[in-house]
From TrEMBL:
InterPro entries: DNA_brk_join_enz (IPR011010), Integrase-like_cat_sf (IPR013762), Integrase_catalytic (IPR002104), Tyrosine_recombinase_XerCD (IPR050090)
Domain of life: Bacteria
GO molecular function annotations of the record: DNA binding
Protein name according to UniProt: Putative Integrase
Keyword annotations from UniProtKB, A to Z: DNA recombination
Keyword check for Glycosyltransferase: no
GO biological process: DNA integration; DNA recombination
Segments forming domain Tyr recombinase: 1-194
Glycoprotein among keywords: no
Amino acid sequence: MAGCGLRVGEATAVTLQQFDFEAGLLYVDRQITQDGANEEPKTKRQKAITKGRGRAHTIRHLKWRDHDEGRAVPLPRTIEAKVKEHLRLYGTFRVEKGLNRMEGDYLFANVGRTNILMYSLVDRLWRNARKAAGITRKITTHWLRHFFASAGLARGVPVTDMAEWLGHRDPKITLQTYAHVMPDAPNRLRSVMDAVFNLETELSLPLEFEAVVEAA
């Protein structure tokens, strides 16, 4: 979540098939939710599973997205190393396509009946980790996603790119949420333009600019 900006439901639903280690990408196309069944249960067993207490946990496509719609997020080398270490130590567990299930080799499993890693368990583990670290401030797992966005934008990653990687349909959402981490944008622009025009030594036109002038 902190390295790729995933929502908690997207992170718990990650499969081996979503990684392209050669290209350095993670394809986000599914999530685990508790918003009820996507499909009408047909068999007695399916009805029993979806009837239980509360709402059914579902592995489904991203909310408000078409079935073939997802996003490709850059995979940092540090995160790739952690993923490969996790695979070496714990492997994956296989889920076949079925009622409210998307097939794949999932990285994170629950020891419960469904093997689905539910948010309630993630939240409990997070609170325990926060307590062990001596963090008294109430922060949620979603702060990891905020860290990803804030770190990238504060270091000059374009808002349009960050919006795409976060899964925001409109970059305005990203800008409104994280504008406070970009107060030094004017200084960054000055540094960039000073470097381009080389004002520290003597003013000289960039080679790219000379090529454009000659071509004209």
